[in-house]
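User: For my dataset I need records formatted as: sequence, then structure tokens, nothing else. Please produce one.
Assistant:
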Amino acid sequence: MAAKDNDTRLKKRKQVPGGTKPETHRSSDSKKPRLAGSKPTDPRKNDSSKPFKRPNPDAEKTTSLSKKELRVRAKELAEARKKKRKPYYNLEHELAHLWEKMRSRDISKEDRYKLVSEALQKMKGKIPEIASSHVSSRVLQTCVKYCSKAERDAKKKKAEGDAKMRKAEKDAVFEELKPHFLTLTRSAYGVHLVKKMLDNASKQQLAEFISSLHGHVATLLRHMVGSVVVEHAYQLGNATQKQELLVELYSTELQLFKDLVLKKEGRLVDIIAKLDLQKSSVLKHMTSVIQPILEKGIVDHSILHRVLIEYFTIAEEFSAADVIKQLSGPLLVRMIHTRDGSRVGMLCVKHGSAKERKKIIKGMKGRICKIASDQCGSMVLVSLVSVVDDTKLITKVVINELQEHLKDLVFDKDGRRPLLQLLHPNCSRYLTPYDLASLSLSIPSLSNKVEADIPSEGKETETNDPDENTKLVDGGKKDPSVRRQELLVKSGLAERLVDVCITSAGELLRSNFGKEVIYEVATGGADGILHPTLDDKLDELYEAIATLVAEPKSDDPKEEHLLENFHSSRTIRRLILDCPAFASTLWNKALKGKCELWAQGHSCRVVSAYLASSDSHVNKLAKKELQPLIDAGTLKVPEAPVAIGTKE
């Protein structure tokens, strides 16, 4: 049987492609000697082996064409395929040529407006179909932009006819796209057109658009492209319109019946109390809205940050902790650029576990300088240095990166905040009431848990500090003074900060923001935290400032002396009043024997500060030289001259 099978296989292999049966030979006879240099023929390469393959009539033509002609032909074939695939291909081609002309900078306004009108006329009736196209979307954006500019220019020139015509053209685009807004908000190219139309929309058109989003806000926020449009509308809307978008995310009832909420009720807690809603159903609905958004990582928008703040006010302990766990890490860094996002970040830092705080800090690695320079992000860093007890991790990630960019941060309005928080914590001079309120913000369900744990922690630490409980509620168990000492002095930040102040003393004193940093450093910080570790360095700083003050007046009116500059003169006055060591150094090195020269202008405030000082030694230094100037009327008497007599 095996021999028969082998014979049948050989027969099948030796079949001729033409369909005729091959002659059967024995195995010994089938072997023929091959000629030298002959190649075996492959039946698969024979054209007759593929009867189903049709011959290409253009094969001979293509082989005779050059490379350039082949490229031209390929381009023509591509154009033909595009025409079949895109019904408005020719229109888009024409619009692209018009767009190149209208967006040129060299074109006059009149010619541009003619091109805009021509483009809009060509697109009339077809706008919804072509708005999602890459090319047409850009053309429409340009048309809407210059229609609005033309309308404004016509109003300035009091040309009512032109203004009405441009407004009519822009309104015609809006009306034609109105039924298709929801579709366009999900389009990768259409979304840019919608944003441009909202930027140039009238108040009535913006209100109509926000109303068209009713019932779809939660769905759009889960969409990568659609969420951008909702955020844009939220930013442009007034307080009532923002509330209209927000309430849909609070409850199913509010989503169905938007007129239930009054304009005055902004907070979710007030809405629940006023409408007698079930807190559990509201919480369930908000969780179903928030969770998919967080899972997709669409956390950049301020509307979501506001929703999270409201969610934390009613969330149960488990729900709040779960959201904090999801946000801890790089996801939180993308949120802290807004006011509400910054508050969410501070709440995560305050109520997060040690593991979650570690994730948050590591997620900021490499971005500390950028976060510190942001108005809202800097407050999260302030919260970190005020709450987190793991000072080694803070030093490694936050403090070390701050030191690398220290010279830039001390001059920055927001970048100096973490430094000032360490030097003088929670000072109302450097933090606004809103910032201080944000730092004291807490999640009700989680703060109750912390308060319940306080007594046992207090027994373990055995401290007699009356403010111990409030500090524990703020999120940290370590003594704040110990935390400050480790982050500011032991980390080397303070020494580096003093060095920067010495090398840039003149610039800092003249700077509107830098003067606060050099003042806090020179006075030794709150509670004298820099003393006595850095006393020698501070003496060098006093000497550096005194050397600059001792320089003579410049003949160039543009170069102000330190005592004549508005910012530096007032900062030096404050230092004289609050730092006797600096006052003595300045007097002996720069002001002694020169008071008559500085008795006029901004500098007179500096000289008179010696008489207003509460330190008797500082009063005695200057009284002998200043009293004749006061008697002669050259120098004004300080506001409280009685203090001089009482101190003696």
